[in-house]
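Final report, Chapter 2: Outcomes

The project's central promise was a pipeline that accepts a single protein chain and returns its three-dimensional structure in a standardized token representation, suitable for archiving and comparison. That pipeline is now operational. To close this chapter, we reproduce one record exactly as it appears in the project archive, with the input sequence first and the structure output second.
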Amino acid sequence: MKKTVFNLTFVLVAFITLSTCKSEKKQDTEQPNILFIMSDDHTSQAWGIYGGILKDYVQNHNIQRLANEGITLNNAFCTNSICVPSRASILTGQYSNKNGVYTLSDALNPDNQNIAKLLNNNGYQTAIIGKWHLKKEPAGFDYYNILHDQGRYWDPILRTAENFHKPSEEWDVHKGFSTDVITQLSIDWLNQRNNKKPFMLMTHFKATHEPFDFPERYNHLYKDIEIPEPASLFDFSPETTGRSFEGQKLENLSWRYEQASNDPDKWWCKYPGLPFYTNDMDSISARKATYQKFVKDFMRSGAAIDDNIGKLLDYLEASNLAENTVVIYTADQGYFLGEHGFFDKRLIYDESLRMPFVIRYPKEVPEGKRIDDIILNIDFPALFADYAGVEKPEAIQGRSFRENLKGNTPSDWRKSAYYRYWTNHANRPGHFGIRNKRYKLAFFYGHSLDMTGSSKESTTPAWEFYDLEKDPHENHNAYNDASYSDIIKEMKIELKKQRQIFDDTDLKYAELQEIFSNYWD
């Protein structure tokens, strides 16, 4: 009798063990869901988790929650710091010269390979909700509900497959503030999706793009509070730092506020808190006042993003999806918040170049860590393919950084980031360059080539070099400092190498080849 009981017990234990092993194996190979949340221009200075003068002022409870439960990338960079090209690179894993999206005026060809198509063909249900901005109809998504063009903050107009090709009066108007609306539409889709398939959902906010609007619940946030100013706020001219161009000054934003105050119905966007004038102020007072309005509005807009990240995270928890969902929050590029006296983006300087990025995946990503590896936006789709267990297509120029996130950085991981901004204007010339962990070298070639949306005005080509250890805010162009001559020579060699790797050599532009022969050495 005892022997029979023992045998039955042994069989039962063995069965449970085998069943557990089979269950664990299935769990290990299960394709994770991917929730990719991206805002527009929500620069790292306004996240709080990257330090800086705003860290004690920004509302970032849920961004901090993600950082605490996952990994923060310290050195994630875009490859072309402007909305349309950056979004195209995130989808295709390619530089602008490969995917054909160079400037704001360009469109992503629906025939191009993209990560949504790849995952959709490998068992994923895919959706994009919110800002698209790539002109032509989205391809590769089972469902899309996208803002028309840039979109508006209040009562946003969204387009679906059912009305995309219909007259504008048949597009859908959703009452409310856009960040709240986009989040609710995302949750609605999650509720009705096919739950037998893994999903990739891209939730893209318009915020914090100009005009930096915010919901009424934040009307009084920062009231009667003076926000600290960046040290370089009163940088009024290129001579201050030795840079080679003027840049987009805060005075231009003051002028926009003034135009919108004078005739709000004719201005292209609706700024909150108007009228606003600086006409009777001296240059210092005017810049101070413009900065205070601008940065407060920007952080209020960011606070609404943080609220809505929390709603999405709470939904995943309540639906028992959190454990098997990769959650990413990032921005399509950085943005100047008064540094160098600038606003806007486009430049290779770090405020514009850096993409803030946090990722949580409880099964695999350790909690509360940061990594310094150089990650590019062309790497994002390679990472998604890796998580999905799908082989990365050769067309993707980036690499998966999944092992980096686990603390196993490959020995041949890149040591520098190659960057190129193609749109040319005199105050922000066309340029390319590289950044490694300590140094940055950029060549402002200043020609429009055949780029849409560029000025026909050319500028004198110029080099800039920054020692990011000694000069982290890039306030001194050290290109002509003899003590760096050997380092600059080495970086020029690396720059040529990077341009060859990504097939960005400008051989079809005779004017650039002549400039290179005259200015490279």
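Archive annotation: DSSP finds 13 helices and 18 strands in the chain.
This record, like all others produced under the grant, will remain available to the consortium after the project formally closes.
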